[in-house]
Amino acid sequence: QVQLVESGGGLVQPGGSLRLSCAASGNIFGIAPMGWYRQAPGKQRELVAQINSGGSTNYADSVKGRFTISRDGAKNTVYLQMNSLKPDDTAVYYCNFYDTSWRQKDYWGQGTQVTVSS
């Protein structure tokens, strides 16, 4: 099986920065990162940043210009650099990988808590 482990979350003040990491392990052959999601209390999980196999990226309007997604294929790791954080960014952040042979089969980590508060 595939295991994803997110790290890098924490408590930061508004305007601060965090860098999230998501490392994939296990049966990683044939999987690729899709992107980062987040879920705030009482809200649905939303796509924050997406990265394609060719490196193309896409961002939610709410984070565009502040967040940057990147990947390291050799390490099977995806990153999310978050700058100029706002209280509305407070959520549990999850990374997602998918099976390149069966795109409908995906994998999720346990999530990492990001809290933006003064």
Structural class call reads mainly beta
Low-confidence regions? none
Estimate the mean pLDDT confidence. 95
Q: Main β-sheet, in a few words?
A: 7 strands, mixed
Distance between the termini: 40 Å
Count, helices: 0
Shape: globular
Strand content: over 45%
The number of distinct β-strands equals 11
- Radius of gyration using CA atoms only: 14 Å
Helicity, as a percent range: under 10%
Strand-and-helix sequence, N→C?
EEEEEEEEEEE
Short description:
The chain is mainly beta and 118 residues long. Helices cover 0% and strands 55% of the residues. Strands 2, 4, 5, 6, 9, 10 and 11 form a seven-stranded mixed beta sheet that branches. A four-stranded antiparallel beta sheet has the order 1-3-8-7, with no helix packed on it.
Describe this structure in words.
It is built from no helices and eleven strands. The protein has 118 residues and is mostly beta strands. Strands 2, 4, 5, 6, 9, 10 and 11 form a seven-stranded mixed β-sheet that branches. A four-stranded antiparallel β-sheet has the order 1-3-8-7, with no helix packed on it. Strand 4 (31-39) and strand 5 (46-51) form a beta hairpin.
